[in-house]
Design a protein that fits this description.
It is built from 26 helices and four strands. With 511 residues, the chain is mostly helical.
Length: 511
């Protein structure tokens, strides 16, 4: 069933501010429980609120901070194992089906096979991420994977990275999402996906400036973004001379070709023939002559910098607390970062116990990004996801395709970027479709043609009739957290659209 125009108008008025999300009614569920679930996860699944109430907020926090202690459901594990390319390393992904000799051009049929392989790799990377985000009980880990991938963004649309972004997430992001920032920084810096995306594989030493003073062969792109985005921040106190010094330090860093031998199965390769072995002065530190070790020393300097501690702390506080995080909170997180040598788990633990995090004015104050909205809507319905294509389609429509941010600064997580009428209409259409059971999330298309039809917005044959989402159950899942104005708007509408109104409400658009 589709929503009538009058209902769309009502929803749009709600979303554009006629009904304020801060106008909350008295609710039977302990507000702290809802707040902690909405911030440490992508939103509650059925019975999550009751489970956290029983477990206690503190135990829930500590449980989520130790994801290895939470068993994954067998159904999810089985689904992930069926994704044949998800756990291959960059070398294996690049060499698949390669039979040409060096310098030999592929035939049209070989190019077609290569494109088909690349599409499978990207599709399975997207499917793997969305399955884990919607179904894994290790929700804080999934939240931090999203956070860190966005921080160390790589765009799948750039050449070879369409093969490598899944491996990049599995090898450089996931293992370190709650570990030490230094290790995370090093893993991303060494990965071929990052080396290729920000052009450092082209970075080579040449000590002979041209007539304009430019250094031929030296590529500063990664060095600049490494400081501006990944570590120090734009106001982190570095100079252009530091950018040049870091580019020299990282010269020769890249990835292996078939003719190059390396023990690193992830594909990182240090080429001494391209490296500047001279002494450098970087951020006031003298880095003595050396090879790959110079880069390791520079990464250590960056990871331990107070400017990095503050930059990372600000971004974490903005993600978990408010679009304009309190200075006192950022300062406390910065101190904790420096005191623990960049231990991400400890920084988060400090955040989750801070006065600012528990300030009631920050409850339900963050507007969900398209990714957060889509995942939270699916989780709220409790549907067992088999087909992730409807989710990825929505993300495309809303301008937030997974692994598709073209700029290295990643997607923003503030309301001003995502709150607009066109985007709200698309969210509402998704809300109506999922509420009415019209999204084939639990149905795997039987063949390629049906998969393509889903991509074009058409529905495949269903294994069973559509089952609408029960509004009472949905309300219970979300902790009866709707404001009085929203409840009145829903009560005055047809019961057949209650679930859609809930998923399109201002309260559900926020976290």
């Amino acid at each position: 069933m589709t929503l009538k125009p009058k209902s769309w108008v009502l929803l749009l008025l709600i979303l554009l501010g006629s009904i304020s999300p801060s106008d909350a009614a008295s609710i039977p569920v302990y507000p702290k429980v809802l707040h902690i679930i909405n911030r440490l996860s992508f939103g509650p699944r059925p019975e999550d609120v009751q489970r956290v109430e029983s477990l206690g907020v503190e135990r829930y926090i500590q449980e989520q901070l130790s994801p290895e202690s939470i068993p994954e459901p067998q159904s999810l594990t089985s689904q992930l194992k069926q994704l044949n390319t998800l756990y291959l390393n960059p070398v294996e992904l690049s060499e698949h089906g390669t039979t040409n000799l060096p310098g030999q051009k592929p035939t049209p049929s070989e190019r077609k096979a290569a494109n088909k392989w690349a599409k499978q790799v990207l599709d399975e990377a997207v499917q793997g991420r969305l399955l884990e985000a919607t179904s894994s009980p290790r929700q804080l880990q999934e939240v931090m994977v999203d956070f860190w991938y966005n921080h160390f963004n790589v765009d799948a649309a750039k050449g070879r990275d369409r093969l490598w972004i899944g491996a990049y997430e599995q090898q450089a992001i996931r293992p370190y999402a709650l570990g030490r920032f230094h290790d995370l920084l090093g893993a991303t810096a060494h990965h071929p996906a990052m080396q290729y995306y920000l052009d450092n594989f082209q970075n080579r030493a040449d000590n002979h400036p041209d007539a304009q003073g430019n250094i031929r062969g030296l590529n500063e792109n990664y060095a600049r973004e490494l400081m501006e985005l990944h570590t120090l921040g734009v106001d982190g106190g570095y100079t252009q001379q530091d950018v040049i010094a870091l580019a020299r330090i990282l010269s020769g860093w890249g990835f292996s070709r078939p003719s190059q031998q390396t023990d690193n199965t992830f594909g990182f390769y240090f080429n001494p023939k391209r490296h500047d072995f001279s002494d450098k002065v970087f951020l006031g530190h003298t880095i003595k002559s050396g090879g790959e070790s110079q880069g390791e020393e520079a990464l250590d300097i960056l990871a331990r910098s107070p400017a990095t501690a503050r930059h990372i702390s600000y971004q974490i506080a903005q993600y978990f607390v408010s679009d304009l995080p309190p200075t006192t909170l950022v300062n406390n997180l910065t101190h904790r970062y420096l005191a623990t040598d960049g231990n991400i788990r400890e920084v988060l633990n400090t955040l989750f116990h801070s006065r600012e995090f528990w300030d009631a004015k920050n409850f339900n104050a963050k507007f969900k990004t398209p990714y957060q909205y889509a995942i939270s809507a699916v989780r709220a319905t409790g549907v067992e996801v088999e087909n992730t294509r409807p989710i990825s389609n929505l993300l495309q429509q809303l301008g937030m395709p997974l692994y598709g941010c073209q700029t290295p600064d990643g997607y923003k997580n503030t309301a001003d970027v995502w709150l607009n009428p066109d985007a709200m209409n698309r969210r509402l259409s998704f809300a109506a479709a999922i509420a009415n059971g019209n999204l084939p999330l639990s149905t795997i298309p039987a063949n390629i043609e049906q998969r393509e039809q889903i991509g074009a917005g058409q529905r495949p044959l269903q294994k069973s009739p559509s089952i609408p989402v029960d509004a009472w159950q949905l309300t219970n899942t979300l902790g009866n957290s709707l404001s009085m104005k929203t409840q009145k708007a829903i009560a005055s509408s047809s019961p057949q659209i209650h679930s859609a109104l809930i998923l399109g409400s201002p309260e559900f658009m926020h976290r």
